[in-house]
User: Fold this.
Amino acid sequence: MIERIVHEQLDDLEKAGPGADLVEVFTESVPSRVMCEMIGVPESERKTLQRHVETLGRLSCTVPEALAAVSGMSGFLSRFVPVRMDDPRDDLLGDLIRGGQLDEQELMGMTATLITGAFDTTGNMLAMGVFTLLEHPDQLAKLREDPELMGNAVEELLRFLTISHLGASRWALEDVEFAGQSIKKGEVVTVALPAVNRDPERYDNPDQLDVGRTDHGHLALGHGVHQCLGQHLARTILRVGYEALFDRFPTLRLAVPAGEVPMRDDFVHYGPRSLPVTWDD
Assistant:
């Protein structure tokens, strides 16, 4: 299913022609379409949900904008989930319903989490990874020479980029001494994930992208019980997406100077707002 969706979006990219926005045509559409099929969301609802998720992820959104997005998302879930509970289908949401362990509110919350993750984080990571590889042609060349490195490349891009750039907050359950600092029980610590994933005491040449790196152990997708719910799905989408894109468009390159690519620097997750690309016909 993922491969089918990826290739359908690449068909659309080819039709759009050189100069197309990769975010709009490919990186935003692939993960959202995958999740919609996995939980049975009608295609007609996808663009509206995409707008709600984008609004809620924008740090500069106003209170009225946030409330409108929450209302819109809640309205969809209150219509969608009860209908599906009465008629569970053969998909991920149907499996959760048939499991019998989640009530309606919990199913709505789980569905919202799945939609938000797929529509935001994976799409940004897919776009940012392409941007980064295009700006590191030596690493892209390594992938072309040895496609078996793609699994390593996905992990290295997750480490190198760490698009969840606001960090993670943790509450100390007891007094802790760490790196010469005293953390008291009940105090909140914010972990700077980009700094952790480029810790020179943990990685050799941490600021260098190396698709052949095998010593990963990054925290881009969390750790322990605090791991990303959709991490395996995200990894699969990234691997299939990168492989198919660079195979289909071997001369893919930026259509504008890298410094002119607009970035989502006012969002919870970092990535390009748009990514104009071109290639040789």
Q: What stands out?
A: The longest helix spans residues 104-134. The mean pLDDT is 93. The longest strand covers residues 168-171. The CA atoms of residues 183 and 206 lie 27 Å apart.
